[in-house]
């Protein structure tokens, strides 16, 4: 089992899983270039986000589990399946999620502060497990 951390996340946005192309994981595994044409909603980040990918074998196949964590003042529409688009400082772009089930799991923690302090901060933890959980894409 190995763990890789994605350094220098500069932007995170989200799209509905329905707006993604089909079979993204298979495209990434075969080296086929992935392109996203749907418009995404950018998330205003409140702290430094992190993304870790853990790889482990399962029935002679490598399985990846990605965990994206970030805080924001935004409230995301978690009632529908969302995929997350990640941009790094090196200019690399990744998709966390696919059009097909199983979708990313989104855990939300709301932190209410003192009456005269900041607004409510939402801490999101997004988990996604698949043969390829962080899918590189082109703009």
Features of the shown structure:
139 residues, mainly beta, 47% strand
Textual characterization of the structure:
It is a single chain. With 139 residues, this protein is mainly beta. The chain has one domain. 5% of the residues lie in helices and 47% in strands. A hairpin with a 4-residue loop joins strand 6 and strand 7.
Task: Describe what is shown at a glance.
With 139 residues, the chain is mostly beta strands. The protein has one domain (2-136). It contains one helix and ten strands.
Largest sheet: 5 strands, antiparallel
Helical content (DSSP H or I, runs of 4+): under 10%
DSSP E strands, number: 10
Shape call: globular
User: How far is it from the N-terminal to the C-terminal residue, by CA?
Assistant: 31 Å
Mean pLDDT: 89
